[in-house]
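Hi! If you just cloned this repository, the fastest way to understand the data is to look at a raw example. We've pasted two of them here, unedited. The first protein comes first, obviously.
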Amino acid sequence: MSSAFDRLARPVQKWIRQQGWRELRDIQARSIRTIYETNADLIIAASTAGGKTEAAFLPLISQVLDEASGGTGFDLLYIGPLKALITDQAMRLDGICQEAELPVVPWHGDVSQSIKTRALKSPKGILLITPESLEALFIRRGLEIARLFGATRAVVIDELHTVLDSERGVQLRSLLTRLELAIKRPIRRIGLSATLGDMDLAKAYLRPDAASSVQLIEADGGEAELRLQLRGYLSGDEEENNPSATDAIAAHLFKHLRGSDNLVFAGARQRVEIYADRLRELCEREHLPQEFYPHHASLSREHRDFVERRLKDPAIPTTAVCTSTLELGIDIGDVTCVAQIGAPFSVAALRQRLGRSGRREGQPAILRQYAVEAKLTPESSFVDRLRLGLIRSIAMIDLLLEGWCEPPKPQALHLSTLVHQILSVIAQRGGASATVVYNVLCREGPFRKVTSEVFADALRAIGHPETGLIEQAGSGLLLLGKTGERLVEHYSFYAVFQTPEEFRLVAEGRDLGTLPIDNVLAPGMLLIFSGRRWVVQEIHDREKVIVVKPARAGVPPVFGGDAGDIHDKVIDRMFAVLEGDSSPAYMDTVSLMMLEEARAHYEQLRFRANNIHSIGEHTSVIATRVGTVKTSTLALALRSEGFSVEQHDGFLLVENGDETPDLRSVLADFRSGEPVDLFAGAGNLISEKFHPFLSKSLLVRDAESSKLSTQALPDLVKTILRKGT
């Protein structure tokens, strides 16, 4: 063993020997030295199963055992994004800590109250918690925070890359700031992350005031051999006894995945249910044991645990058909193959998913990518003709092979989460002055881009008598209003993201899982859920229960969901694919045929020479050649001028009416840089949980800071008009 091993506490050394480890991984040895020799914050970056958890906790636990702390409270704090991940990591750490006689306390909604009560009475060891449960501690135990965390040496943030620029990530950063203010000292921050395109932004997230001092420990090489294939399928080609694209993909998955452990990422939950149903049916038809199971957030915890246990058991072949629920670091063991149906929305997600495969020494990582495109007819749209889903898949695979992935976006205003944190700080303190709240959240905390003027506008909006979230006492102290008290007292307050009401699905008295309220269901309707087919019998609105029974047919329920933003670089690579002539070796015959069709139609539309192409008297296609944020900005600007606009990857389909001005003239006006009322033709500005309490002007500011890029509009239009003029 290395010198790094010698620095660890004896119980930790004993545990390592019990695991049969001959050597520490390089990333673990470097982390041990850094944690022992410095007080620096650090990011430990490696692929899934790269040893990040041990790299952080082996030295931290050793320090707890060898060096007495001067205060009371939990010794270490672990923050994870998922309850399942916390449960998994608690079991993982328990093995180390049993030897060290150090308590491991998982804390989330599914943990019993008795465990929580004991931990609150005598806080010590390692607390593993979600951001939402930590928020609840601040609100319910605000005056005890210093006692609970007075001894805390370090906070470990798992899956750091998933929270960098999200509302939840801003909430977490705010909580960390408030924690340090409560105990009156900084706490070492350690982020565990997949490797990102720009780690400097991750450093800035972890310690905004001292990003340059954050140490980065990144795993070296060690990547498994990658085997991949992109297969193409045509939908709408079911004549002459051809199977549907769905059936053909299911048959291919069945043939190649049976007998091993695999993950199939099918995208939306309804697609998960469709493919799980098809694969279950194939098992039954062949009189073979069931190996294919759905896994998504609406299914019961019991069902998801069952699937995860099967994946961990090497003796039982299991394929999980899933959404992104199995993308994060839940320990499910090694899988043989990762399949992706449809184009992913980010290279980072594709990379994270692929990290589940090829983890055993000598075993390759296998990626099967399936692209489904419509059979072309004379009436086919330009989107179908350009095969944009296939082109995005190629672009992302190419960028994956080059080692690139999306960097986190610069931080926006996040006004919805600001409202949430204002209420939380007031609740924690039992009242606070506007100055104190501003200092905690904006000067010290993550809302640095919120000026005192915008902050004051936010206070006025949530303090308006019709809103009633806050009120001001005669002394000037901010207090919760009646509406604010009701909000904060409800368990749903702790999460900053939308949590719609869900209906429980019940069959013969047994819970199957939940369906979001945005589904329109009625008795007699058929659906597929949990890989089975059901008919709706009863709907109980008050109890939020849907009673179902097995059926012979069904359709997947429609779940809500946000598609996600496509990065500029992905779009740029998509155009390079369309304008190129190479035929990637990983593509099958059908996908290559589709690629040639796409390139031929691209040439017919003459986008090499002109970024604007008329496809009818009133319709034009604009090649923006940029990602979602900038393309959305131009779309809003055009809608404000009366155009009907349809948005696609790097393209806009624009229709003008009889009274709509000339498209090129409008674009020329945008080029001048004169202010454009982007929201004149916009619909709903409410996209986050606390947006309904804000004024329109604040909603516009928030949207401009996060979803749009108004400053980029003139240059974008210049680029569009440059060709063909």
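Ok, and the second one:
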Amino acid sequence: MNGYDLLRKEIRQYIYDEDWDSLRGIQEASIKHVHDTENNLILAAPTASGKTEAAFLPAINSIKDWASGLKIVYISPLIALINDQFRRIYELCGYMDIPVTSWHGEASRAKKNKLLKKPRGILLITPESIEAMLSLRPGEAKGLFRGTEWIIVDEIHSFLENNRGIQLRSLIERIELYMEKEPRFIGMSATLNREDYKKVKNFFISDRVTDVLLDSSQNPLEATKSYYKSNMKRESREALEEIYDYSQRESMLIFPNSRGEVERLAVGLSKLGRQRGSDTRYFAHHSSVSKDMRLNAEEFAKSSRGKLFTICCTSTLELGMDIGSVDSIVQYNAPHSVASLAQRLGRSGRTTRKNILHFIATDEWSLLQGLAALSLYEEGLVDRFDYIIKPYDVLAHQIISILLENTGMPVKNLKNINKNFRCWQDIEDDEYFELLEYLIKRNYIEILENEAITGIETEKLLRGSDFFTHFETENNFSVYNSQKKIGEIPLSPGVQTGVNIFLAAQIWKITDIELKSKKIYVNRAVDGNPPIFLGNGANVTNEIRNRMKVILENENYWIYYNENIKEVLSKLSKENLRYEKFQWVEKNDKFGIRTFQGTKINRTLQLLLNMLDDRVNYKLDDRETFISGPNIRKDINRVIERKFTEDEIFLYLRDNPGIVESYLSSNKYRMLLPDNLKIKYVINNKLDLEGVKSYLTYSGK
């Protein structure tokens, strides 16, 4: 029996009414798998392969009694993706009278309350909203999740190498305690390295077997590659002109690597459009643009009906959203990973089954990195994920959250959290007790006889909604034109009355700043610059860095590049490939080593070199994978001979707390950790001693 025949008549009617020619391969396989087994599923398939339906059709089809509670919980990393999936699922569920409820900070309060009064149907929710519910409304959570049979996690790769993913694993375990029976899980991703399958399957802490259904098909790719030298403050005129030309015949998403670059490009393109009478609409889309203006861009793209548009965006549009009318993608300078590039490419070609990429670089090293990522993508290779080991800070946060959920607990139960929750069982007892002792000492936890409750410092954490997230939120000021909110920006030194700024693809003059209400008022202007947005650069993987070296060494890769790109690669090749044991480079009066290793290895090697002598400060330019210093030839050999241990690194970091803090600057809850655990976290997750040893051993042969 095929998958279609296994579906209920209502679902088959929906498929018929939607004019589907047939089920996609991944849909057929998932329907049969859910019907024939009790196993969990990971759906690994390209963007636009029908993964959403491959998850929901069999899950919905398997439910016997929709009246007995909330049956399916769908968890998404983005509110925008929830809103997009709601529209897709709502129509299907209408055929079966199944209610669908969105739950996040921007969702309807009335609909949330309706669901709480009578749990039923399907819930679409973010991890942060689950956290808030468990911490502040545990009684309602108990009633809500009691009847749940399925948990579906979309874009599961986005949860695999960050604290947010660890938080989600803990939250899933916590809501499972309220369920009457063990749920089944489905995870979805378009970008998984096959070497990661085992770890991905372990994301779901379940007694069920987890299987992977793989669809390795890939849309054909058409790619253009261009290089234009630019500077940091102004985009290349040639690059802007090329992108503008594309925008006159293609609807596009442009992915730069920062909010500042998004605004520069959006404003520059808008100016050209006005000057030349173009009908193309230009938008900026990132986290600092107001919700209404982001939605306006999304809705225009979805209902454009042949009208051309260009959206300059950050990763806010990288994941899962279906904007079917996108013709092409512009990658402006290099992506940090192959996985990110693959996700971005997946935003195009949903209707044509063809991906079109315009890669434009304005810096030599960004050019090489982008070519490396594209080369790996074309070979079907994706970077391996960098999993977090012993996330003490997330555990500390979850301890506090669990105490809030239970309004305290007996001390004996508190002492066993690392044993009672399977996601924390890799945390050893001595580490766990050290963490508890610190939280008690710092008044995050208070002990009353044999009862543990949250302490006075926890009350400070709970002010506002920041407690529920594991990503840093900026101290932003809201920007208004009259009564309309444009977005939010940090109050940096350059943000002053009379200054012109870019925001939401438009130029504004700051007319007033209200410090108390944290509001900035603006009027239209004719020229300016983006405000300074905060943010840390992402780690670059070993796979990309190794491929960068291969491209420089092998001119066979250059065959399909234009003469401009070949000239850049030739220059870099001559500059960098000076072989002895290692690749020594003299650059701008600096002498150093070009490693072509990932960020973590480079960071670790820099640290080891600095550990040799406090009087010498070795510098790392990770973008150029270049470490420089006065005695580097000699000191590289000293590092090889020393055979540094983790214990030595621990002692050094203990004596240099400033280095530890710099490594942990993106860890929101680092303040919940004692110094020893901070250092252990750094060694486990920010450094790669074994990677350095492998590099030095291999390169030294």
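That's it. A detail worth noticing about the second one: The chain has 28 helices and 25 strands.
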